[in-house]
Write a structure and sequence with these properties.
The chain is an alpha+beta fold and about 230 residues long. It has a 4-stranded mixed β-sheet with strand order 2-1-3-4, with helices on one face. It is globular.
């Protein structure tokens, strides 16, 4: 029913988290972002921003032809509305879940991504950038920690797409781990999600040999990964 155009990145994991929780049948369509497959015309037809993930739903709710969706937040919202799951039905609960979904899309993801770029992938150390994004990542973790005080999940007792969006962005870089020690609520919440069987199934998908990546990127791979189309 769902074709998921995927690579095992934090944004890719968001969608496998949902699909495994919901039990929706899906097929993984690898898009190797290190070799430039995100620039192929067939992929750009469904994801014009040349970024994973994207989906094609062969059985959309309106009964029409297959429907493609790009941008991970939009995909999570689409799937939540399709299944009637992981998004509160009441106005206030839905509003809170969407606030934190958009917070992740606008803040936690981009800022943690920049942290990773300058600490892991940049060809030279730029101390100003490293310090800037380390501080911002810690600030955002503090925001998340305060939100989780006295709550099981971001919207309260219910696990939602907001949690699925944020979870993969909590210290995703093994070579430059973020300090989670000051954020006890984040650590408790993160451990609870990690223990969910669906989370374990979702991350196990990344072990597929099709997603094997080199231990180190060469210059051409680094250029492609960060937005330059591969040289013909």
């Amino acid at each position: 029913m769902i074709d998921l155009y995927y690579w095992p990145t934090p944004n890719g994991h968001k969608i496998t988290l949902f699909l495994e929780e919901a039990g929706l049948p899906y097929t993984l369509r690898p898009v190797n972002i290190g070799s430039g497959e995100q620039f192929h015309p067939d992929f750009l037809a469904i994801a014009p921003n040349n970024r994973i993930p994207a989906i094609v739903d062969s059985q959309p709710m309106d009964g029409g032809p297959p429907l493609s969706v790009f941008e991970s937040g939009a995909i999570l919202l689409y799937l939540a509305e399709k299944t009637g799951r992981f998004l509160p039905a009441d106005l206030r609960g839905r509003t809170v879940a969407l606030e934190w979904l958009f917070w992740q899309m606008a803040g936690l993801g981009p800022m943690t991504g920049q942290y990773g770029h300058f600490h892991v992938y940049a060809p030279e150390a730029i101390p100003y950038a490293q310090e800037r994004y380390a501080r911002e990542a810690q600030r955002l973790l503090g925001v998340l920690d305060r939100r989780l005080e006295g709550r099981a999940f971001l919207a309260g007792d219910e696990y939602t797409i907001a949690d699925m969006a944020c979870y993969p962005w909590i210290s995703p870089y093994a070579k430059a781990p973020l300090d989670l020690a000051p954020h006890a609520n984040v650590r408790r919440w993160h451990a609870a999600i990690a223990a969910r069987p669906a989370t374990q199934r979702a991350y196990a998908r990344a072990a597929d040999p099709r997603f094997a990546r080199p231990a180190e990127l060469d210059e051409a791979q680094r250029r492609v990964l960060f937005g330059a189309p591969p040289t013909p």
